[in-house]
Amino acid sequence: MFNWFWRARDFYVSQSRPKFEAITFGLALLAGLLVMPGLIYLAGTATLQAYERGGVFALYSDFYKGLVGLRPSCWIVALGPFVFLSLIRLGRLILRKL
Fold it and tell me: Cys-Cys link to 32, which of 57, 72, 78, 97 (CB 3.0-4.6 A)?
Protein backbone atom coordinates (compact mmCIF):
# COMPACT_ATOMS: atom_id res chain seq x y z
CA MET A 1 0.00 0.00 0.00
CA PHE A 2 2.79 2.47 0.86
CA ASN A 3 5.33 0.96 -1.50
CA TRP A 4 5.69 4.27 -3.36
CA PHE A 5 6.51 5.99 -0.08
CA TRP A 6 9.32 3.56 0.75
CA ARG A 7 10.74 3.82 -2.77
CA ALA A 8 10.69 7.63 -2.61
CA ARG A 9 12.33 7.54 0.84
CA ASP A 10 15.03 5.13 -0.35
CA PHE A 11 15.70 7.34 -3.38
CA TYR A 12 15.89 10.44 -1.16
CA VAL A 13 18.38 9.02 1.35
CA SER A 14 20.55 7.38 -1.32
CA GLN A 15 21.46 10.69 -2.98
CA SER A 16 24.88 12.31 -2.69
CA ARG A 17 25.24 14.90 0.07
CA PRO A 18 24.86 18.02 -2.17
CA LYS A 19 21.88 16.54 -3.99
CA PHE A 20 20.30 15.48 -0.67
CA GLU A 21 20.70 19.02 0.69
CA ALA A 22 19.29 20.55 -2.50
CA ILE A 23 16.24 18.27 -2.38
CA THR A 24 15.74 19.04 1.31
CA PHE A 25 15.99 22.78 0.66
CA GLY A 26 13.59 22.54 -2.28
CA LEU A 27 10.97 20.58 -0.35
CA ALA A 28 11.23 22.88 2.67
CA LEU A 29 10.97 25.97 0.47
CA LEU A 30 7.96 24.48 -1.30
CA ALA A 31 6.33 23.90 2.10
CA GLY A 32 7.16 27.47 3.11
CA LEU A 33 5.67 28.89 -0.07
CA LEU A 34 2.54 26.75 -0.32
CA VAL A 35 1.65 25.33 3.10
CA MET A 36 2.76 27.93 5.64
CA PRO A 37 0.58 30.83 4.41
CA GLY A 38 -2.45 28.56 4.54
CA LEU A 39 -1.63 27.45 8.08
CA ILE A 40 -1.12 31.07 9.10
CA TYR A 41 -4.50 31.93 7.60
CA LEU A 42 -6.21 29.10 9.49
CA ALA A 43 -4.56 30.02 12.79
CA GLY A 44 -5.33 33.70 12.33
CA THR A 45 -8.95 33.05 11.44
CA ALA A 46 -9.41 30.73 14.42
CA THR A 47 -7.81 33.02 16.99
CA LEU A 48 -8.31 36.54 15.66
CA GLN A 49 -10.76 37.42 12.90
CA ALA A 50 -11.16 36.93 9.19
CA TYR A 51 -8.37 38.32 7.02
CA GLU A 52 -8.98 42.03 6.56
CA ARG A 53 -8.33 42.14 2.82
CA GLY A 54 -10.42 39.09 1.91
CA GLY A 55 -10.06 35.35 2.04
CA VAL A 56 -7.22 32.91 1.81
CA PHE A 57 -6.40 33.80 -1.79
CA ALA A 58 -5.96 37.45 -0.86
CA LEU A 59 -3.51 36.35 1.84
CA TYR A 60 -1.54 34.29 -0.67
CA SER A 61 -1.52 37.24 -3.06
CA ASP A 62 -0.24 39.60 -0.38
CA PHE A 63 2.33 37.02 0.71
CA TYR A 64 3.78 36.62 -2.79
CA LYS A 65 3.77 40.40 -3.32
CA GLY A 66 5.70 40.68 -0.05
CA LEU A 67 8.25 38.15 -1.29
CA VAL A 68 8.79 40.16 -4.45
CA GLY A 69 8.91 43.36 -2.41
CA LEU A 70 11.58 41.78 -0.15
CA ARG A 71 9.55 42.09 3.05
CA PRO A 72 11.48 40.29 5.82
CA SER A 73 8.34 38.83 7.41
CA CYS A 74 7.38 37.05 4.20
CA TRP A 75 10.88 35.66 3.72
CA ILE A 76 10.93 34.42 7.32
CA VAL A 77 7.72 32.50 6.64
CA ALA A 78 9.06 31.10 3.34
CA LEU A 79 12.42 30.00 4.78
CA GLY A 80 11.05 28.98 8.19
CA PRO A 81 10.61 25.25 7.46
CA PHE A 82 14.21 24.94 6.22
CA VAL A 83 15.58 26.81 9.23
CA PHE A 84 13.48 24.61 11.53
CA LEU A 85 14.79 21.43 9.87
CA SER A 86 18.35 22.75 10.07
CA LEU A 87 18.00 23.45 13.79
CA ILE A 88 16.61 19.97 14.41
CA ARG A 89 19.49 18.42 12.46
CA LEU A 90 22.01 20.56 14.34
CA GLY A 91 20.50 19.51 17.65
CA ARG A 92 20.69 15.85 16.66
CA LEU A 93 24.32 16.30 15.67
CA ILE A 94 25.16 17.94 18.99
CA LEU A 95 23.39 15.21 20.94
CA ARG A 96 25.15 12.52 18.94
CA LYS A 97 28.55 14.07 19.77
CA LEU A 98 27.82 14.10 23.54
Answer: 78
